[in-house]
Specification:
This protein is an alpha/beta fold. The chain folds into 2 domains: 118 residues, Rossmann fold; 107 residues, Arc Repressor Mutant, subunit A, CATH 1.10.10. It has 8 helices and 12 strands. The structure holds calcium ion.
Length: 235
């Protein structure tokens, strides 16, 4: 059965280019030209993937995305963003897009991303996301901005616990209790070691840090706005 793709794009030239290409690759494609039509179609029907333009004539694409995510629509969303609109892309990932592609793009590039997103399957509750960091709990795979990250089992366990509690400061004892066997009080220092490993894998190369040190408590994961709250020290 072929995957169903909804294209929400007001520019007819791009909509045609994308839909013809995807149909040629074996997908079932439906095109709508406004944000409202997009929201309505997703409400009425099941799609396996949504391609979403950000600059729409009525509701802007990010608001469409927020509406869909608020309605617990979990199907992957690939943003078609205008050239250079970095803030939009970052914001898009924060409000629940799975990937983005910048116009103009080559069809092969689009197709590669469509295939990658569809391979992820139906993520729903088994998928955790903080900013552009995504954890697929079924396949035990972690990606940041689409890039795969290899984690040791304990690193994965700590990260999963943190991602299930985004924005909540977690003490070293809480982390140890969740990730190690019980009554390992002497292990709290090892949490710092693992957090250091995790940071080197998921944060060091990125400008926006997700793992935060919370003074006097422990650690927290959060996709922060550009300015950090005063109570949190990013280290
Ligand atoms: Ca547009």
């Amino acid at each position: 059965m072929s995957s169903r793709v909804l294209v929400i794009e007001d520019e007819q030239r791009i909509a045609d280019f994308v839909s013809k290409g995807l149909q040629g690759a074996g997908y079932t494609v439906e095109v709508v030209n406004t944000g409202k039509q997009g929201v309505d179609r997703v409400h009425d029907s099941d799609f396996d993937l949504i391609l979403l333009d950000l600059m729409l004539p009525d509701i802007d694409g990010l608001s469409v995305l927020e509406t869909l995510r608020n309605r617990k629509v979990t199907c992957p969303v690939l943003i078609l963003s205008a050239r250079g609109a970095v803030d939009d892309r970052v914001h898009g990932l924060e409000v629940g897009a799975d990937d983005y592609i910048t116009k103009p793009f080559a069809f092969v590039e689009l197709l590669a991303r469509v295939r990658a997103l569809l391979r992820r399957g139906q993520p729903s509750a088994e998928r955790l996301q903080v900013g552009d960091l995504v954890m697929d709990c079924v396949r035990r795979k972690v990606t940041r901005a689409g890039e795969g990250i290899d984690l040791a089992p304990k690193e994965y366990g700590i990260l999963e616990y943190m991602m299930r509690n985004p924005g909540k400061p977690l003490s070293r004892t809480m982390i140890v209790d969740h990730v190690w066997e019980k009554d390992y009080d002497g292990l709290t220092n090892i949490v710092d070691v693992y957090i250091r490993h995790l940071r080197s894998k998921i944060d060091d190369r990125w400008q926006r840090k997700l793992i935060l040190t919370v003074r006097g408590i422990g650690y927290m994961i959060e996709a922060q706005p550009d300015r950090a709250p005063a109570a949190v020290e990013v280290s």
